[in-house]
Specification:
The complex is a heterodimer of chains A (210) and B (542).
Chain A: H1 27-66, E1 94-102, E2 108-112, E3 116-119, E4 124-133, E5 139-148, E6 156-161, E7 167-169, E8 174-183, E9 193-202
Parallel strand pairs in A: 1-9
Antiparallel strand pairs in A: 1-3, 2-4, 4-8, 5-7, 5-9, 6-8
Chain B: H1 2-5, H2 9-12, H3 30-36, H4 40-68, H5 79-114, H6 122-130, H7 132-147, H8 165-168, H9 171-200, H10 213-244, H11 258-292, H12 299-313, H13 328-340, H14 342-356, H15 365-388, H16 390-396, H17 400-430, H18 436-463, H19 477-506
The chains are: A alpha+beta (210), B mainly alpha (542).
């Protein structure tokens, strides 16, 4: 055994190359086997990378289906007539709480005109937010809604909302921003309170193009 | 373990040293030797040296933090700088101290333990190491740039990079993102190398269930790394594009979702915890078996427990952010699956205890560290069960209770585990015995001051002190003062560790080949230190 060449001097030939020779049993096969295994493992790395990015749409689909993150649509919900959704359930009352967050850098004074409303499922209601631009520039803002508990998001249907479009306010201008919504009668029975929170963003600072 | 002892003596004889004249690298001297080396022992030494240096750098950062927290109020630094220190401390300790130390162990030990002449991909091995110093430099550079008025310092979001804060942060975030990319590439290269070595280069006769537990644990660690590091790399890449290229992965204003970042981060981050700990769990049975002079108890049970933990670790991530808001069924799923991890972990604990049961125990430094590991890591594990409880977590989340918990797992589980391995294998690597008295002094100072540092933090957390805040209410003052005193003793007693290693590398009483009376395994059949090229003739395991 000692007469055969020693294990490959690492500087001259790496064992990933086919010329690797050693006195270890099945040595010529070892380099090939190593190379094959490296490629298989690199495929795992590639698959994991793809999986990492695939998690983004996967997460969004999962959230839309389960309300995992309480994200609410930025488009108008259509409520077909003469369906269960339009039947008003007067036996049940749901409390809607209104909140807002003004994100850093947006010089707007924002508050909901009502802190909460008691509504019947299936009944259209209108709530308003009062927004005033306290700066000396015209500023375009965007409101992004979020709903808690998250499972209620798909049952909180907005027919009209100031969050569907960007809102432009002149210096010192005050706007009353309306929101018309229906709480679907399909809302889970154990949910008695829905909290609706709007985050207001400065569109310029957040590079929002629409 | 049982496997490694039965080696055919005819095959274990090492070639005479003169044989190595044919190896080109032996003629290189100075820095070029280390830059170009493809020898697993050299690379292992570089990984471990790098890790020790970064351990001290990360330690200095956190001593500055503890100094600030010695008293309530802001005394020493601005809050922004405090925020930078805590985040970079964690990234340095995780990516530049703990992970390279474990990879250093793998490089040194796996070829020796499985009877392979070197790692399978020596040149990739060299590259894997030399990516680390640039990555660490990228992490720390923003601190230095800020001194010259460039940028506003390092990453100030904490090590978790949570969006939207990290989307808004300064250049420190970009530096940290690229550092994580490079650390990740290094880890993936190291992992591929380890898997290929273990799968293809085991000594003849070393079947899967004769593989030493350390190699088994590293094999699973390496698979976890190649499966999860790319997800982290993807997440920070999305963060980078959100910051500079107008994408909106995590920006709610553009339709993104900041919580998505938490999912992506912890999909990597939770397995990462086991990536840090699995190599230690693989090493501890060897140490216990050596110093109790008994074979490892429950070898197969431990291998299955490693696999169980590896698989469970990738499906429990959301317990890190129970309070971010999730439907109750999701909370329950993540709670139960997290708690399920305690079952394979309990199997490991029982196997460790059963290995020691009625053994002829002696208490050399590695054994002391192993025992300290079992007790303190046990506390870390039990407090983890408390945090896994959804109802309790609402109170403990983001409090000092969490800080104490993960230092009980990652300092006493991770760092003390690494120290166990260093004391255990150092005589084999250097050929000299370390100073046993200093080793024991180091152990006792470490254990006492560690508890002095972190035990009060459990109480601080229970009392409601939030983590990552430079100031605190007056009622937390006493426990914080105790914790800071403990931290300084803990930090300075690590100088004994460094001194002991340096002295051991330079000289000292000659270590025998077997080093320890009860050691079993292929690596102890080689000389101490092992020749530069070992197992050129593979041993045959019966």
């Amino acid at each position: 055994m000692r007469g055969s060449p020693g294990f490959s001097p690492p500087l001259r030939s790496c064992c990933i190359s086919a010329d690797c020779s050693s006195n270890v049993d099945k040595q010529p096969d070892l380099a090939v086997a190593n190379r094959r295994l490296v490629w298989k493992l690199l495929w795992i790395v590639a698959a994991a990378s793809v999986f990492g990015f695939a998690l983004v749409p996967l997460y969004n689909v999962l959230c839309a289906a389960t309300g995992l993150n309480g994200k609410s649509s930025l488009r108008a919900d259509t409520v077909p007539e003469n369906t269960a959704a339009t039947v008003v359930d007067r036996s049940r009352k749901v409390t809607i709480e209104f909140m807002n967050t003004t994100m850093a850098g947006l010089p707007w004074d924002i508050h909901p005109a009502q802190t909460h409303m008691d509504v019947h499922p299936g009944e259209p209601n209108t709530a308003t937010y009062v927004v005033r631009n306290v700066s000396k520039q015209t500023i375009v803002g965007q409101a992004v809604p979020s709903i808690s508990p998250g499972q209620a998001a798909q049952h909180f249907q907005k027919l009209e909302c100031f969050c569907f479009t960007q809102q432009s306010l002149q210096p010192g201008e005050e706007k009353i921003m309306p929101l018309t919504f229906i709480v679907s009668p399909k809302l889970q029975q154990d949910i008695g309170t829905i909290t609706l929170s709007y985050a207001f963003f400065d569109t310029a600072a957040n590079n929002i193009k629409r | 373990m049982t496997a490694a002892t039965n080696t055919n003596p005819a095959h274990t004889a090492q070639p005479p040293h003169g044989n190595h004249d044919s190896h080109q690298e032996e003629y290189r001297g100075g820095i070029m030797r280390w830059l170009t080396t493809t020898n697993h022992k050299d690379i292992g030494t570089m990984y471990l040296t790098f890790s020790l240096i970064m351990f001290f750098i990360g330690g200095i950062m956190i001593l500055a933090v503890r100094a600030e927290l010695f008293q309530p109020g802001i005394q020493l630094m601005k809050p922004e700088f405090f925020n930078q220190l805590i985040g970079i401390h964690a990234l340095v300790m995780i990516f530049a101290a703990l992970m390279p130390a474990a990879t250093g162990f793998a490089n040194w030990q796996i070829p020796l333990m499985i009877g392979a002449p070197d790692m399978a991909l020596p040149r990739i091995n060299n590259w894997g190491f030399w990516l680390l110093p640039p990555a660490a430099t990228l992490l720390i550079l923003p601190f230095i740039l800020a001194l010259f008025g460039i940028g506003d310092g390092a990453l100030a979001t904490g090590w978790t990079f949570y969006a939207p804060l990290s989307v808004q942060g300064g250049i420190g975030v970009d530096f940290a993102i690229f550092a994580v990319h490079i650390f990740g590439i290094s880890s993936i290269l190291g992992s591929i190398n380890i898997i290929v070595t273990i799968v293809n280069m085991r000594a003849p006769g070393m079947t899967w269930f004769k593989l030493p537990l350390f190699a088994w644990a590293w094999l699973i660690t390496a698979f976890l790394l190649i499966a999860t590091i790319p997800v982290l790399a993807g997440a920070v890449t999305m963060l980078l594009t959100d910051r500079h290229f107008d994408t909106h992965f995590f920006n709610a204003a553009g339709g993104g979702d900041p919580i998505l970042f938490q999912h992506l981060f912890w999909f990597f981050g939770h397995p990462e915890v086991y990536i840090l700990l699995l190599p230690i769990w693989g090493l501890i049975p060897h140490v216990l078996s050596t110093f109790t002079r008994k074979p490892v108890y429950g070898y197969r049970a431990q291998v299955y427990a490693f696999w169980g933990i590896g698989v469970l670790s990738v499906i429990v991530w959301a317990h890190h952010f129970f309070t971010a808001g999730m439907p109750v069924p999701a909370l329950l799923y993540f709670m139960y699956s997290t708690m399920a991890i305690s079952i394979p972990l309990a199997v490991l604990f029982f196997c460790w205890i059963a290995t020691m049961w009625r053994g002829a125990m002696t208490f050399e430094t590695p054994m002391l560290f192993a025992l300290g590991f079992i007790v303190l890591f046990g506390i870390g594990g039990l407090t983890g069960l408390v945090l896994a409880d959804v109802a309790a977590d609402a109170q403990y989340h983001h409090s000092y209770f969490v800080v104490a918990h993960f230092h009980y797992t990652l300092f006493s589980g991770g760092i003390m585990g690494i120290m166990t391995g260093v004391y255990y294998w150092l005589p084999k690597w250097t050929g000299h015995m370390y100073n046993e008295k200093l080793g024991k002094l180091h152990f006792w100072l470490t254990v006492v001051s560690f508890n002095l540092t972190f035990m009060p933090q459990f109480f601080l957390g229970l009392a409601g002190m939030p983590r990552r805040i430079p100031d605190y209410a007056l009622q937390f003052a006493d426990f914080n003062a105790i914790s800071t005193v403990g931290a300084f003793i803990l930090g300075f007693s690590q100088l004994i560790f460094a001194w002991n290693i340096i002295q051991c590398a330079r000289g000292g009483p000659k270590a025998s080949d077997k080093v320890w009376e009860g050691s079993t395994g292929l690596e102890w059949q080689l000389s101490s230190p092992p020749p530069h090229h070992s197992w050129e003739t593979q041993p045959v395991v019966k």
